[in-house]
Design a protein that fits this description.
Elements: H1 3-13, E1 18-19, E2 41-44, E3 62-63, E4 76-77, H2 83-94, H3 132-140, E5 142-146, E6 154-160, E7 167-171, E8 178-182, H4 186-192, H5 199-207, E9 212-216, H6 217-223, H7 239-252, H8 259-268
Antiparallel strand pairs: 1-2, 2-5, 3-4, 5-6, 6-7, 8-9
Amino acid sequence: MNGRGVRVARAGLRGGAVVLAVAVLGGCEGGIGIDPGPAASAGAQDPGSDAGSGSGSGSGGSGAGPLKNPDGTKRGLAPLTSEADRSAGRKLIDRVKTKGRGPKTGYDRDKFGYAWLDSADGVPFAHNGCDTRNDLLARDGERLKYRSGSDCVVVSMTLRDPYTGKTIEWRKQSASKVQIDHVMPLSYDWQMGAARWDEDKRKQIANDPLNLIPVDGPTNGSKSDSGPASWLPPDKRIRCSYVVRFAQVSLKYELPVTAADKKVMLRQCGG
């Protein structure tokens, strides 16, 4: 496949992002440091939400609801507002097993692979030539701009943050303003059973878009490795969607949650 074909294939993985530059591409850059200058090429995503139940726009979340996005490849996290969706969310949460939280002994972020590797097998967006962080910025951002000569490194975007309901104008020069949240935190995973996994499986959960959402940086920092009983998004409208996504990750990777967390999860969806 030639360079132009590679660009089109990657854009398709990003929900239809369009790259305006037409020069033949070189290698895709995976770095996430401060960009030395403004991008000469730009991409734009249609700011409209996904149609169907569980979708929304503006404050309170944007993009696809978790029930319509079981693999995490669609943009954002929209509220679940209908009783039918909230009931479906409770049924999904009911399937999650519980156990006590184990010790944190031996946990290290590097046990889940070097941050944002493109080499995790078996998860969407892997092996596409771009690191996981940039894949997630491209998935959820609007009005994307890329580093000159790259269709990989996002240098600016608009993000509708589902956790706070606010719109963030992000620039790479202030990278920490947006962070990628592990919905089910890696330390939590470790304590609930991932300590016994091999490294390949830990790389999967660390880079799986189902478990990853770009959000307001300070808000993500306040979460740390908390489960739902200790931390929930500030915007109450998104909390049912958040705990349903937490349950989706739990079920996919056969990780239990604490009894206290499950009780709170059910309550967010009216249980």
